[in-house]
From TrEMBL:
Gene3D superfamilies: Histone deacetylase domain
Xref: SUPFAM superfamilies: Arginase/deacetylase
Keyword Membrane among record annotations: no
Protein name according to UniProt: Histone deacetylase
InterPro entries: HDAC_classIV, HDACs, His_deacetylse_dom, His_deacetylse_dom_sf, Ureohydrolase_dom_sf
Pfam families in alphabetical order: Hist_deacetyl
Domain Histone deacetylase, first and last residues per copy: 23-290
Family (UniProt): Belongs to the histone deacetylase family.
CDD domains, A to Z: HDAC_classIV (cd09993)
């Protein structure tokens, strides 16, 4: 089984100008089903989590104002979204999907959230199209509820630094944050992850894969995690409008294979979230994301 969280409310919850990049969340399940990588029984509908699950990583005042639509205009502008009840429902559903994926990964070895990877959300504010931090909340849920999980590794390979995640876990030794991202990309002001690997513009497949191949096995040996979260953004592609790196689709697939095969060989449960992808052609985005699922289906 390849458990995949899906929430049916993505595109309509967003303003019209933001809907194109979000089409992948509807097209990707269709592609996986059509080609047989996944079956209908692999999908589960994500549901909102409890307030307690959210408040482990988010400030109560921020969450309350977000829930009631009381963010300031400045706070709204930082998120990139005008507030709506549908948007709030979307955000908590994404977060709940990643927590449920963590539960399922403990059983099946791997689980996915078709969305997720909202790594720019901080404890007390949102930014960069991220309002609540789903992987941070799911990591905190595991540490609070699963005694066998004593150390979590977050592998963030989106082209943008996971600044919110890094800040949330700055003083939490049980979570190790690793971000490999474009050095000159958003955010302009980076936070300090436990390990940051900033990459120059134009980084290609061979350079990227060599660096990741030298780094990740060492991290697994040193940190000895019990659980891994993988943010598999495809905004590292050369075709991406915002990424500025130069990976091919095959290089992106090799990246996924490297991460997932290491987790599989070491029997480490892993949750994969999709993260960013902003190529001009939606087919390039969907195909690159589909490769992540194909790699997992071949391993687990």
């Amino acid at each position: 089984m390849l458990p995949i969280a899906f929430a049916p409310c993505y595109a309509h919850a967003l303003p019209e100008g933001h809907r194109f990049p979000m089409l992948k969340y509807e097209l990707l399940p269709e592609q996986l089903l059509r080609e047989g990588t996944a079956t209908a029984t692999d999908f589960f509908v994500a549901h909102p989590p409890s307030d307690e699950d959210i408040l482990r990583v988010h400030a109560a005042d921020y969450y309350q104002r977000l829930r009631l639509g009381q963010l300031t205009r400045q706070e709204e502008r930082a998120t990139g979204f005008p507030w709506s009840a549908a948007l709030f429902e979307r955000e908590i559903t994404i977060l709940g999907g990643t927590i449920e994926a963590a539960r399922l990964a403990l059983v099946h070895g791997v689980a996915f959230n078709i969305a997720g990877g909202t790594h720019h959300a901080f404890r007390a504010w949102g930014e960069g199209f991220c309002l609540l931090n789903d992987q941070a909340a799911a990591a905190a849920w595991l540490l609070a509820n699963v005694p066998a999980v004593r150390k979590v590794l977050i592998v963030d390979l989106d082209v943008h630094q996971g600044n919110g995640t890094a800040a949330i876990f700055q003083e939490e030794p049980r979570v190790f944050t690793f971000s490999m991202h474009g050095a000159r990309n958003y955010p302009a002001r980076k936070e300090q992850s436990d390990l940051d690997l900033p990459l120059p513009d134009g980084t290609d497949d061979s350079t990227y894969l060599k660096l990741l191949g030298e780094t990740l096995p060492r991290l697994l040996d040193e940190q000895q995690p019990d659980f891994v979260f993988y943010l598999a953004g495809v905004d590292v592609l050369a075709t991406d409008k915002l990424g500025h790196l130069a990976l091919t689709r095959d290089g992106c697939r090799q990246r996924d294979e490297l991460v997932l095969s290491l987790c599989h060989r070491q029997a480490l449960p892993v949750v994969v979230c999709m993260g960013g992808g902003y190529s001009e052609r939606i087919a390039d985005i969907v195909e690159a994301h589909a490769n992540t699922y194909r790699v997992a289906a071949g391993l687990f």
